[in-house]
Amino acid sequence: MDAFTDRPFSGNPAAVCLLDAPADAAWMQDVAAEMRHSETAFVRRADDGTFELRWFTPLNEVALCGHATLATAHTLYHDGVVAAGDEIRFRTLRSGILTVRPGAEGALEMDFPAGPPVAAPAPAEFAALGTPFGWTGRNALNDWVVELPDAAAVRAVAPGIADLAGADARLVIVTAPADPGADHDFVSRTFAPRSLPGDAEDPVTGSAHCALAPYWAERLGRDALTGYQASARGGRVGVRLAGDRVVLTGRAVTVLSGDLLV
Predict the structure, then answer these.
(1) How far apart are CA 126 and CA 34, in angstroms?
(2) Could you tell me which of 128, 135, 121, 155 has the C-alpha nearest to residue 215?
(3) What is the CATH number of the domain that holds 228?
(4) What is the residue range of 226's domain?
(5) What whole-number percentage of the chain has pLDDT above 70?
């Protein structure tokens, strides 16, 4: 599935594995490594009608993932596992209950925990970003928000991943206000040097917007905003702050379906 987009080959690709029985974590990690997407989601219907959900990168299991949750919900609706108008309740190991419901014009709305960042001095390893930056802070998930001067700086950033991986961070999120007249409110890019191989960039990161939503809501004075993640693939994430929760809105498209043979 391509998530946070309405057209194939953009947004963030995720693999979704529908399980009919409990699976071993080592097997799920092997499958995720084989899929080579930033995240692979594994979902199974529980006896109480909820769905057990776990997410793995090619390297490890993660505590929270937005785009693979969106892709999973899209799959459950698309395949008729869940009726079109019904709410989906996901039970996760580290992030509690996450709910997804149909939104307007084919979008899906995901109820996630907010992760407001608190100001903190930047680790020395952030010099690897290779660009001047201003405010820095992190949240309870150890996601760092780094504000750059403008949207052009966000698009141009090319971090030294080997050095950046030395920082104690789950995600390193660079962000800036949108250009005047843009159809979104802020831009971002997200790097996960301890979880993703290669350039470690995640194309469109729902969980990063759990930090970006409260950050920009405070600065822009509005609780409902639109973020654009300016990776090569690009993607849009609607955010609405609701107390200690964030409603993330996006679309997904099915690109490929098949059966695992092992």
Answers:
(1) 31
(2) 135
(3) 3.10.310.10
(4) 118-248
(5) 100
User: pTM above 0.85?
Assistant: yes
Which helix (H) or strand (E) covers residue 216, if one does? helix 209-220
Tokens of 40: 């692979």
Q: Residue with structure tokens 């962000």?
A: 175
Whether residue 35 is contained in a domain is answered as yes
* Residues belonging to the active site: 39
**What residue ranges in 31-161 does DSSP mark as E strands?**
40-45, 51-56, 61-62, 88-92, 96-102, 108-113, 118-119, 136-138, 143-147
Nearest to 177 by CA among 202, 203, 149: 149
- Please say whether the beta carbons of 205 and 234 come within 8 A: no
Report the pLDDT value the prediction gives residue 262, as an integer from 0 to 100. 87
**Which residues are bridge partners to 113 per DSSP?**
245
Could you give the CA distance from residue 14 to residue 11 in angstroms, rounded to a whole number? 10
Q: 27 is written with which tokens? A: 């097997």
Q: What is the pLDDT of residues 147-175, one digit of tens each?
A: 999 999 999 999 999 999 999 999 999 99
Extract the tokens encoding 78.
């698309």
Q: Same structural domain for residues 219 and 124? A: yes
Work out the average pLDDT over 199-222.
97
pLDDT 10s digits, 12-39: 999 999 999 999 999 999 999 999 999 9
